[in-house]
Design goal:
Length: 404
Amino acid sequence: LRKTYPAERHFPLARDLKPSYDVVIIGGGGHALATAYYLSRDYGITDVAILEKGYLAGGNTARNTAIIRSNYLTPEGVKFYDTSVKLYQELSQDLDYNILYSERGHFTLAHTDAAIRTSRWRAEVNKHLGVNSELIGPEEIHRICPVLNMSEDVRYPILGALYHPPGSIARHDAVAWGYGRGAARRGVEIHQLTEVTEILQEGGKVKGVVTNRGTVYANKVLQATAGSSSLVAKMAGFRLPIRTIPLQACVSLPVKPFLDQIIVSGSLHVYISQSSRGELVMGGSTDPYGVYSTRSTLDFKEGLLGHMLELLPFLGEMKLNRQWAGMADMTPDFSPVMGLTPLENYYIDSGWGTWGFKATPVCGLTMSYTVANNKPHELIEPFRLSRFEEMKQVGEKGAASVGH
Ligand code: PYC
């Protein structure tokens, strides 16, 4: 714990573990920090320890492409992510911490008749629930985003797009640090390099956790561990319908601002936006197999950039700066698994697949309610684990920006 990690420049982290806490949160990413923030702010629950095996917000919170949107396909998904977008819009003020929230407008390009149909479907569901989305044609796309290659002389010409004006980006570390600082100021302890190795239980009820730094007892435990969700749930004694698959991304060197919007093409397997400091932030599809690894590959880069050049041919000489991967915890229906679990007083926030960052505030809000009241918040009721036994899946694959 001697090394200084970035978060420590923003607020002090805890040093010694106490023998017990009211609530232990396994995982120190955005969802865990947001839950601790709302637990302490809205419910006065401050005897909370966040246990992170690595460094704070160093997992998928540090590895996503920071896209925020609510243009989902199912009413359950749209309501959930719309709540998140609304919380994001006020978050800098709420946390008194600038998260560099930047509203850009989000295009999901359609290159086939089937994609046009899904875009229309999403637009109608979105509008019905008060979310601003519209199916637009090539002329309108060109008017709003003139840098896109609208030529018909390419393999997949752009036929239309689902246009979602509230689509935004934000600084991902700032979201984590803002929530972390807000929680720490209210008394929440944040412990880095603290790995949970066993979940203690008695009579079907959680009792605490064993860590590499000793045993910690707790009345309630929440797991919010993204790519490690299945492994941690296994320690708690139940199985999740989740496969962990790497998702890679990369950024270019910074260049002058030329791209205001967020561009996604499911058919070409690419998404791109330009960050506030000028880097192009880009990603493609998930890796073709499940593996617990955050290595990145040449294969990914070649495939992604080949397709990117179809949309933005003038990027040919652009230099890449960094590439990386996160581990996406994918469910069969592409919706999360949240709420109560078969182990009493043990709660779960998982199954984020390729869209965990945008859900950070609403996860904090709904999981804090669930932990405080031992009852699922109504927004996450459809995402209960038992939906897979009940055949009540919430199919969101059609709203994925990422190819699968
Ligand atoms: O869901 O918008 C999204 C997304 C973009 C990249 C990964 N997920």
